[in-house]
Write a structure and sequence with these properties.
about 575 residues, 21 helices, disordered N terminus, 2 domains, seven-stranded mixed sheet
């Protein structure tokens, strides 16, 4: 058997299709009651809340959420993918755990090249075994539970198993994904049987869906622990599915699964306006990018400008451009590439970067800098646009907080299903080309390497050392921007966490500003264009979850753009 305080909540959104007919999750009230869980789906949030009601830890709650999301949000995350886990305590103890997927040992920098040496089109690569990395979420869960779990390992699976076995109701968001991403969701007969009718049309919102194959998979892992997933018949069968879908002579092997492990990492931290901001280091670009966006703006009085100022949003966009330029050049798996994390978060370096920003005009060129400790100049890669993921947070009665981002990358990952769950397409987070102009790309494919990620689980400590904010987001490359925007909202603009998350957003990783569709920021278009910006209106995948210590209590929040909720047990 594997064993290794939020009071007020953000008002939940109305979910007409997922209330009365969803299979109930048993409420267990034995043991102390307290804490909060915020997740992108109310069924998953309730799974975590059940663990807190049993006297479980925030780690127990977060694992139960991840498992339940495998069932009810298959387009975004689950055991077929990986994630990053971060845990902090009121005393300042901080750990991070890297459950990012890994490339097969036999993979080379030519992984995505065809016989002629040209990169395969993304649309072709993503639907094959070339895109599938060794999933890391099960190993992550086992490692975290081994240190911080209080509830029995098998009990963490009970809510997810009940949902898969007895059924869950498709929400409007899920139904929309089935339509928009049917090339992946319906790639296999298993996917079509799960989510499409006899005519090949996606099941509508409000439909009760059962997934007995996934229930059986979860039961096996609940009883057998991570070995049931990474070794033995399940792993062998999964490897065969992946290998059969891989168009080269070096596919995934059983040894790739058997040798996978989650890695405990050091959390990079830095100070912004006396607040200690801590995040996830490589292979995530979360900590360095979030912190750079913030620290480069420290010279400006954002509090005086406020969220209604065009200047505030101009400055925010300009800082993003600089931060993402550094991210593209330097961030990758630090087990393979020397990543200058300390230099990228160095206060003096970021002050120099911030000095490039003008309040009255747009930079002509936001080029990467040279952080202290950068030993080698590598090339900017050609990574496809990231998408998907799910974020969730939990705080337990002892005040320990977990912020955890889980992903299968794009909607429904690679489209390939095994055991009732979708396998990730995480390897397409690598650059599709291994070099540019004869210079190696930092984020190129290599055997056993983990692809760069934008996931940014974040903890914030107040000037007096109090843990005051637990946050993260989903939405591919927009994740660091969502987190940085919320932190500015709380720290600079004095907003509570729900309002900070709900702030309108813009995304500026390059030479144009993408403003979310229908955003009130579009009223600033003329003023921003006068500063030199080019604006594009587009739907953005914003979906953040968080919790804040405010007024002597924890307050949970979920993005109003999502179907998420915060639940107080």
């Amino acid at each position: 058997m594997f064993r290794p305080i939020l009071i007020a909540v953000f008002a939940p959104l109305a979910l007409a299709a997922c209330t009365s007919t969803t299979a109930p999750i048993e409420s267990v009230s034995s043991g102390p009651v307290g804490g909060v869980v915020s997740a992108a789906d109310p069924r998953a949030a309730e799974a975590g809340a059940q663990m807190l009601r049993r006297g479980g830890s925030s780690t127990d709650a977060a694992i139960a959420v991840m498992l339940a999301l495998t069932v009810v949000e298959p387009q975004s995350s689950g055991i077929g993918g990986g994630g990053f886990y971060m845990r902090g305590t009121p005393e300042g103890d901080l750990v991070t755990l890297d459950g990012r997927e890994r490339a097969p040992a036999a993979a080379t920098p030519a992984w995505f090249l065809d016989a002629s040496g040209a990169p395969r089109p993304f649309g072709q690569a993503v639907l094959t075994g070339l895109s599938i990395g060794v999933p890391g979420n099960v190993a992550l869960a086992a490692a975290a539970h081994g240190r911080y779990g209080r509830v029995e390992w098998a009990d963490l699976f009970a809510p997810a198993i009940a949902l898969a076995r007895d059924g869950w109701v498709l929400t409007p968001r899920s139904a929309e994904f089935l339509q928009l991403a049917r090339n992946r969701a319906a790639l296999t007969p298993e996917g079509r049987a799960l989510f499409y009718d006899a005519a090949g049309e996606p099941l509508p919102a409000g439909t009760l869906v059962r997934n007995p194959a996934l229930a059986a998979t979860l039961e096996a892992i609940a009883q057998g622990g991570p070995d049931a997933f990474y070794r033995g018949p399940m792993a062998e069968a999964m490897v065969q599915v992946i290998a059969a879908a891989t168009p080269n002579d070096a596919p995934m092997t059983g040894n790739d699964f058997a040798t996978y492990s989650a890695a405990w990492r050091t959390s990079p931290c830095g100070t912004y306006r006396q607040y200690r901001i801590c995040g996830m280091g490589p292979p995530s670009s979360g900590a360095t990018t979030v912190f750079a966006v913030l620290k480069q703006l420290e010279q400006f009085d954002l509090a005086a400008l406020g969220p209604a100022s065009t200047t505030s949003w101009h400055l925010f966009a300009e800082s993003q451009r600089l931060a993402y330029a550094d991210r593209e050049l330097y961030l990758a798996d630090s087990d393979f590439v020397p990543v200058p994390v300390s230099g990228m978060m160095d206060a003096a370096y970021l002050a120099r970067r911030g000095a490039l920003i003008s309040a009255t005009t747009r930079m002509a060129n936001a080029a990467a800098g040279t952080p202290p400790g950068a030993l080698v100049a590598m090339a900017d890669g050609a990574e496809p646009v990231e998408s998907g993921t799910s974020h969730f947070v939990a705080v337990d009665q002892w005040g320990a907080a977990v912020t955890y981002t889980s992903t299968v990358e794009g909607p429904y990952g690679s489209g390939h299903i095994f055991g009732g769950f979708y396998l990730n397409n995480e390897l397409t987070d690598f650059s599709l080309v291994p070099e540019q102009g004869g210079v190696a790309v930092a984020n190129r494919v290599e055997g056993g390497k983990r692809p760069r990620s934008s996931m940014a689980p974040t903890l914030v400590y107040a000037p007096d050392g109090t843990l005051v904010l637990v946050i993260g987001a989903a939405g591919g490359g927009t994740i660091p921007v969502q987190v940085a925007k919320a932190l500015i909202g709380v720290i600079d603009w004095g907003l509570p966490i729900d309002q900070a998350i709900a702030l309108p957003g813009l995304y500026a990783p390059g030479n144009e500003i993408v403003v979310e569709e229908g955003s009130p920021l579009l009223t600033m278009r003329g003023a921003l264009e006068a500063l030199g910006h080019t604006l594009v209106e587009r739907r953005l995948p914003f979906k953040a979850n968080g919790a804040q210590w405010l007024g002597g209590q924890w307050i949970g929040a979920a993005d109003p753009r999502s179907e998420g909720v915060a639940i107080h047990p």
